[in-house]
Amino acid sequence: MLLEIKKHPFPLLKKRCEAVKTVNGEIRALIRDMFQTMYHNNGIGLASNQVGHDLQLAVIDVGDGKRVIINPKIIKKQGKETSEEGCLSLPHLFLKIKRAKRIEVEALNEKGENVRIKGEGLLAFCLQHEIDHLNGVLIKDRIGFLHKLRNLIK
């Protein structure tokens, strides 16, 4: 089932989401619907608050297979890199964002199993972007005042 993608300034987008207590059939159905919604909108990642759910849950597919992160925590960051990012909740806005080049994340998967995901490049950026969402941070929050002003002028 396709879900409605919430757009800024939807209040849940600015809130730290609640931890998932149990990975059950309801959560797995939400994961399935989130993947369907993400693919339908040509996205590579989607956080649950973007579809109106207050849960620490995101889905990702950067072209090398589906990944689910539940209650994710970044445990290691290395290097820095800048890349242009967009967001399904901020359509038509693309910003250059500086993030860690390589990261390692601990989370639960769709089966409720502990997983560790190591990522670099696009996967690292996507993981950081979705984890930001789960913590109430949008890409527009990652840039400074002068950068915001420049984007208003363009």
Explain this structure.
The structure is a single chain. The protein is of the alpha+beta class and 154 residues long. It has one domain (11-153): Peptide Deformylase. Helix content is 25%, strand content 28%. It has 3 helices and 7 strands, in the order H-E-E-E-E-E-E-E-H-H. It has helices at 25-40, 122-134, 145-153; strands at residues 45-47, 57-60, 67-78, 81-85, 95-99, 102-108, 114-120. The strands form 2 sheets. It has a 5-stranded antiparallel sheet, sandwiched between helices. Strands 4-5 form a two-stranded antiparallel sheet. The radius of gyration is 15 Å and the shape is globular.
Count helical runs: 3
Tell me the helix content. Answer: 10-25%
CATH 2nd-level architecture: Alpha-Beta Complex
Spatial ordering of strands, largest sheet: 1-2-3-6-7
Listing every helix as H and every strand as E from the N terminus to the C terminus, the arrangement reads: HEEEEEEEHH
Under CATH, the homologous superfamily reads: Peptide deformylase
| Tally of distinct domains | 1
Overall residue-averaged pLDDT value: 94
Any descriptors?
154 residues, alpha+beta, Peptide Deformylase, five-stranded antiparallel beta sheet, two-stranded antiparallel ribbon, 3 helices, globular
